[in-house]
């Protein structure tokens, strides 16, 4: 004789298993991440990018995103990232609280990773940990051309092979601002994040992306508490009317939780600013932990006919 109670329990168990199966099959490994930052800055004339004249409270490059991957089979996984800049707590940006950042979808496997969407060009990617004042008014993008994030691109990044990695950005003609196909290619030797090796060096070239053609060599070396970085770049406009050279030198030293920093950048191509530009920056970080940093920075920008300076106190939290 069949036990009805047992049958009902078995059927319920089977139903629950079937219901849960799609979620198990479709489950993706993902994480929500971001950066919350607040800065009080006093800027002299407002000539430089990323800082307005006067005393301002800003949220420089604060962002939130989701990234992850989903295993398709033993050889290939789908990878994705959706990231936006968050400007909403600034009074002037309440009508447009978000701006597009890296957003893409692609595949990853033994061949490396290939993604389609908005992404940092591999020319920008080549800077690694060179910039001591990344995403502030003292960012090297203040004077150095080619630090671009572009949409409608295809990005390929190889896996590391004997400490070497190759990456490539391609923009089709019809999607490119220059109305011709463009690319950026980068070869890196060493660990770009300085985790597995205390050094890295990169060679990079960009052609017909965001109206420039340029080549650069960049490198960073970390010896105990001291970190040194250098960059040389030759740039020219696609129409050939502007050209010149750029340089960056950076240094930092870790003293327990304190990190004093210096940086010098110069460019005479007039591609990023309207004339030859020179920028000196100095700062002091206090690192509470891996997620939280307080900082003080001062930067001075000199152009042929204008000048600007900015003093800023900030707090940055990464999650």
TrEMBL record:
What Gene3D superfamilies does the annotation carry? Porin
Membrane topology is: Multi-pass membrane protein
Q: Name one GO cellular component term.
A: cell outer membrane
Signal sequence: where? 1-27
Care to name a GO molecular-function term for this sequence? porin activity
Task: List localization entries.
Answer: Cell outer membrane
The Gene Ontology biological process annotation of the record reads: monoatomic ion transport
**Location (main, coarse):** membrane
Alphabetized, the UniProt keywords read: Cell outer membrane, Ion transport, Membrane, Porin, Signal, Transmembrane, Transmembrane beta strand, Transport
- Ranges for domain Porin come to 12-302
- Please give the subunit comment from the record: Homotrimer.
Write the protein's name.
Porin domain-containing protein
């Amino acid at each position: 004789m069949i036990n009805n109670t047992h049958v009902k329990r078995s059927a319920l168990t089977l139903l629950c298993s079937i219901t849960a199966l799609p979620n198990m099959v479709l489950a993706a490994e993902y994480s929500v991440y971001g950066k919350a930052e607040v800065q009080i800055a006093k800027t002299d004339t407002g000539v430089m990018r990323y800082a307005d004249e006067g005393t301002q409270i800003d949220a420089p490059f604060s962002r939130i995103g989701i990234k992850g991957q989903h295993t398709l089979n033993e050889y290939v996984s789908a990878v994705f990232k959706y990231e936006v800049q968050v400007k909403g707590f600034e009074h002037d940006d309440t009508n447009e609280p978000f701006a597009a950042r890296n957003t893409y979808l692609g595949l990853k496997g033994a061949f490396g990773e290939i993604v389609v969407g908005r992404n940092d060009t591999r020319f920008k990617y080549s800077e690694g940990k060179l910039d001591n004042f990344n995403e502030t008014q003292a960012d090297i993008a203040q004077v150095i051309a080619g630090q671009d994030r572009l949409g409608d691109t295809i990005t390929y990044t190889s896996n590391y092979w004997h400490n070497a990695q190759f990456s490539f950005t391609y923009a089709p003609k019809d999607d490119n601002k220059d109305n011709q196909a463009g690319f950026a290619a980068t070869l890196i030797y060493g660990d770009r994040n300085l985790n597995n090796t205390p050094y890295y060096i990169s060679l990079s070239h960009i052609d017909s992306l965001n109206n420039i053609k340029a080549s650069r060599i960049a490198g960073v070396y970390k010896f105990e508490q001291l970190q040194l970085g250098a960059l040389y770049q030759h740039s020219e406009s696609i129409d050939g009317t502007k050209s010149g050279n750029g340089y960056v030198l950076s240094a930092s030293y870790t003293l327990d939780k304190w990190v004093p920093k210096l940086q010098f950048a110069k460019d005479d191509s007039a591609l990023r600013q309207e004339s030859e530009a020179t920028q000196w920056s100095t700062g002091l970080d206090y690192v509470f932990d891996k997620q939280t940093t307080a900082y003080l920075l001062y930067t001075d920008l000199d152009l042929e006919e204008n000048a600007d300076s900015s003093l800023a106190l900030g707090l940055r939290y990464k999650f």
